[in-house]
Specification:
single chain, mainly beta, Neuraminidase, four-stranded antiparallel β-sheet, 5 helices, 43% strand
Length: 427
């Protein structure tokens, strides 16, 4: 059986059960429309369903209950604006959780979780070409934001001291075809940032700064590590004294993994998608129990998860072993798109455009179970933004989703199983 359903007892008061029933009736969304995520100039996306609107035909509860892993949505879809089609980044800063959105109409936004959520930035930080907030990270008492822009203006880096936002990088580090500042990492007390190249003439770049200040950034990777097909370093992770970078390439060459001990000199340790060029991207990384895990994009047979151990050295293809193949048994899980550790478990969130993103977990790296329903009960929740929109805050796992129909969502793990009504379509 592809998805293991675990049935355990759970005790709730009457009021809590009423809330759970109400959530289950309202959580079902419409079927996915004909849309695809793609980069570059603003795409034409389908007419959104406004918050609170209900499809003409909705499933009804059967009266029976099933035990499901507990997830709670903690925002209104799109923070009240369905044009916020994705929660693209999540990060703690200070004592609050921050969320960045994608909004092709008015520019990306940044929200702070309070009671209720509060918008701290709208309108693309004052520039509507900043359509999304690719990543958020804390570094030396500032919250940094990398933007998704376009090849005319270039991605930007902004930072916040708790009160004010200041732009510290503009025009794609001087090359507007670096249209996104996609991923940050902190390594050896230095902030690293990768770009997404929107031109065939060069690949991804990685820049770094010890201060984050304007004018204090140095390029340490050029032209996709020497291959323009490596258009982005989509995953960055620190492991065993090295900074690792996973690339987004294509099915001809496959994704690669590079690493550096000093941030300046880089060595390729994985080539040709772990020997399968259909693994066209290394989409995610996580460190768990002395292993480095990597998730891939594979549109042919489904995303894969690979790992290497501290003792193996992790410096060549043969040091890595596959622990998950074929999209956890569903080829529609085309990407093992996010990896994150929470408590005693390693979690993986998939990209699934058919039934919605799936969340899987393991406590040993080899035996995995699905926790929760596909798409959190809505097939329109079809992916995260890789590792950028999963985080830990106050010991809870948070996941941000793309949802074109209703607006991006933020889900929080409640840490256990709950009873919900079984929904029967056509009831």
């Amino acid at each position: 059986m592809r998805k293991r359903i675990v049935l355990l007892s759970s005790l709730f008061g009457a009021a809590a059960l009423v809330l759970l029933l109400a959530w289950a009736v309202g959580a079902q969304g419409p079927e996915p429309g004909e849309h695809r995520l793609h980069r570059g100039p603003h795409p034409v996306h389908p007419t959104d369903v406004r918050p609170g609107e209900k499809p003409a035909s909705r499933p009804a509860p059967s009266g029976a209950l099933e035990a499901v892993w507990g997830w709670e949505q903690v925002n209104i879809n799109g923070f009240g604006d369905p044009d916020n089609v994705g929660v693209y980044s999540l990060s703690p800063f200070g004592d609050a959780l921050y969320a960045g959105t994608v909004n092709w109409d008015t520019g990306g936004e940044i929200w702070r979780m309070s009671s209720p959520w509060t918008a701290v930035i709208t309108g693309g930080l004052g520039y509507t070409y900043n359509v999304g907030i690719d990543h958020l990270v804390e570094f030396k008492s500032y919250l940094y934001a990398g933007t998704w822009a376009d090849p005319t203006n270039g991605g930007e880096v902004w930072r916040n001291d708790g009160l004010n936002w200041t732009r510290v990088v503009s025009q794609g580090f001087g090359d507007q075809t670096n249209a996104e500042v996609f991923r940050f990492a902190v390594f050896s007390d230095t902030l690293y940032a990768s770009t997404w190249s929107y031109t065939d003439t060069h690949g991804t770049e990685i820049w770094r700064s010890g201060s984050g200040n304007v004018g204090d950034w140095t390029r340490v990777v050029t032209n996709g590590f020497g291959d323009a097909d490596n258009e982005c370093a989509t995953a960055l992770e620190v492991f065993n004294g090295y900074l690792y970078a996973g690339t987004w390439a294509d099915e001809t060459n496959g994704g690669e993994v590079w690493r550096s001990g000093d941030g300046l000199n880089w060595t390729r340790v994985v080539s040709q998608g772990f020997g399968d060029t259909n693994n066209e991207a290394i989409a995610s990384f996580a460190v768990f129990n002395d292993y480095l895990y990597a998730g891939t994009r594979n549109d042919s047979t489904g995303g894969q998860v690979w790992r290497c151990s501290v003792t193996s050295g992790c410096n060549e293809n043969s040091d890595w072993g596959q622990v998950i193949g074929d999209g956890f048994g569903d080829a529609n899980n085309t990407r093992a798109f996010a990896l994150i550790v929470s408590g005693d478990y390693l979690y993986c969130v998939t990209w699934n455009f058919t039934t919605g993103a799936e969340v899987w977990r393991t406590d040993d790296g080899t035996n995995w179970e699905q926790v929760g329903s596909d798409g959190f009960g809505d097939s329109n929740n079809w992916c995260t933004n890789g590792d950028n929109s999963v985080t830990i805050f106050n010991d809870r796992l948070y996941i941000g989703t793309w949802n074109y129909a209703n607006g991006g969502e933020v889900w929080q793990s409640t840490g256990g199983l709950i009873y919900l009504p079984i929904i029967l379509k056509g009831y």
